[in-house]
Amino acid sequence: MKSYLIHFIRHGAIDETLSGKYIGATDVPLSEKGREALRQLDKEFRYPRAQVVFTSPLKRCTETCRILYPDISPLAIADLRECDFGDWEGKTADELKNEPDFERWLAGDNEVRPPDGESNASFVRRICRMFESIVEGLMKTGTTESVIVTHGGVIMTLLAVYGLPQAKPFEWVMDNGCGYSLRVTPMLWQRGKVTEVFTRIPMKEEE
What we know:
alpha/beta
């Protein structure tokens, strides 16, 4: 039976994250160091081929696509964007330590919502709905290999929900420009909406 490969890649580095700020919906570009690091990874390692590239519409993801997949026009999908941290955007944990509900939110309380932002529960519903739509679309069109360039929080959450082996979100952590490849087998997907995570990316040339 035909299987479908989906390669998740986290966008390159941005200055704001390196300085410890929460950046979700804020549309910031890659840092110059982030761009150079992606070029170096692309030179030293091998990124997977793809028939189609999906991306978050935020600049740090679309710019990553242009560096790693310059010959493919990516399909930007709004619901692949990072969680909206609302009034907490651009602030550090130290700046937020006295905020009501910050500790509960940090601990993963699904119902806590940053002021004017998105709760964990809403974020998970949004990205899961979109991922399932992408998988169903790949199956309908027979597209067997695709790339999704998105945010660390999106990737870790989706792998915690759908990935085998089962692991908590923080166990799927990855560096900028890196990610995971997963295999979707229609029978397993239709039975329980699970996927097999089989390797990290990018890979060495001999792998």
